[in-house]
């Protein structure tokens, strides 16, 4: 393992798709580029988004309760666990099959991962993450009576919103590290991890979702990885994104990134969380590198030929 680059890979929505069939096709496509990274000498610890997946599961469980009253709707922490298993299963199988087709027998494992959060995190007082199906006004009022938060989108209906607290501790970190140290490919912390609140010896599931970029930064920090590789739908981070004077950034320092944030250069729900995750990682691992690019450019980015490089 001495010459192996330890890389935490964060997969975005484009690597998984939005439906069961899209996900199956997407993970097999993405697996080719993950296998390329492994052949280039990288040990991969992989985390992934789960927004569409957890919403689909939440909708399904809610509708099951509506049709069959004996079935209770699943809490968000359970939906998150289901999405981890579902997405992890597809990624694990696709990557293992791709590796075997190349004669590579590296084990691939998925770890159901819990992440502790602070019950007094400010996010619990101002939930903002929209999930699930559109509801009628009557259904929305029932959700509110249960103590849940709901917002209205004009012309579409009502949506439940949940908190997005910051991750405190990855509870299965020792297991993840053990597998990574032995050269395995590890899939973990899917969808930000299952948010739990530590209560004495018990772990209480939280009605929340941890942002995938937040957990990617923490996972890379805790593992002291050489590289945090964030795969997204664009080949580079851009200045003036979407404008006629759009300009790709090939590299930047943390202080430059902070200036761009202050200037409002990064979208609040897309690129900004990725840049913040990069800063979190580099603060605790100043010798590390952060790369942001597409799956297709992943190996080239590791070799310094593509993507956006962020360093301390």
What structural class results from the helix and strand content?
Answer: alpha/beta
Physical arrangement of strands within the biggest beta sheet: 3-9-2-1-12-16-17-15
* Rounded mean pLDDT score: 91
Describe the largest sheet. 8 strands, mixed
* Total helical segments: 9
Shape: globular
Q: Could you characterize the architecture of this molecule?
A:
With 312 residues, the protein is an alpha/beta fold. 39% of the residues lie in helices and 25% in strands. The longest helix has 26 residues, at 76-101. The radius of gyration is 20 Å and the shape is globular. The model has no long low-confidence stretch (mean pLDDT 91).
Record keyword descriptors for this entry:
312 residues; 8-stranded mixed β-sheet; alpha/beta
Q: Gist?
A:
It contains 9 helices and 17 strands.
Topology:
Blueprint: E1 5-11, H1 20-39, E2 42-48, H2 51-67, H3 76-101, E3 108-110, E4 114-117, E5 129-135, H4 137-145, E6 149-153, E7 157-162, E8 167-170, H5 173-181, E9 185-187, E10 194-199, E11 202-205, H6 212-223, E12 227-231, E13 237-239, E14 247-249, E15 251-253, H7 254-262, H8 271-284, E16 289-293, H9 298-302, E17 308-311
Parallel strand pairs: 1-2, 1-12, 2-9, 3-9, 4-10, 12-16, 15-17
Antiparallel strand pairs: 4-8, 5-7, 6-7, 10-11, 13-14, 16-17
Helix pairs in contact: 1-3, 2-3, 6-8, 7-8
């Amino acid at each position: 393992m001495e010459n192996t680059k330890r890389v935490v890979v964060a997969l975005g929505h484009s690597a998984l798709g939005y439906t069961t069939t899209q996900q199956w096709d997407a993970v097999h496509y993405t697996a080719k580029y993950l296998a390329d990274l492994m052949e280039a000498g990288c040990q991969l610890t992989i985390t992934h988004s789960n927004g569409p997946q957890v919403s689909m599961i939440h909708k399904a469980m809610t509708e099951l309760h509506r049709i069959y009253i004996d079935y209770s709707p699943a809490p968000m922490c359970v939906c998150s666990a289901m999405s981890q298993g579902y997405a992890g299963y597809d990624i694990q199988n696709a990557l293992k099959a791709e590796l075997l087709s190349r004669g590579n027998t590296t084990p691939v494992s998925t770890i159901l991962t819990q992440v502790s959060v602070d019950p007094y995190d400010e996010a619990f007082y101002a939930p903002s993450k929209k999930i699930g199906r559109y509801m009628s006004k009557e259904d929305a009022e029932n959700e509110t009576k249960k103590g849940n938060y709901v917002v209205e989108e004009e012309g579409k209906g009502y949506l439940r919103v949940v908190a997005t607290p910051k991750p405190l501790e990855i509870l299965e970190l020792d297991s993840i590290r053990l597998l990574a140290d032995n050269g395995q490919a590890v899939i973990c912390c899917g969808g930000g991890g299952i948010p739990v609140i530590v209560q004495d010896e018990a772990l209480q599931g939280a009605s929340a979702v941890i942002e995938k970029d937040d957990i990617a930064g923490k996972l890379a920090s805790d593992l002291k990885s050489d590289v945090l590789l964030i795969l997204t739908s664009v080949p580079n981070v851009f200045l003036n994104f979407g404008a006629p004077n759009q300009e790709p950034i090939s590299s930047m320092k943390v202080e430059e990134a902070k200036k761009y944030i202050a200037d409002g250069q990064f979208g609040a729900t897309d690129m900004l969380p990725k840049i913040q995750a990069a800063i979190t990682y580099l603060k605790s691992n100043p010798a590390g590198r952060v790369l942001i690019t597409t799956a297709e450019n992943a190996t080239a980015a590791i070799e310094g030929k593509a993507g956006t490089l962020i360093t301390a």
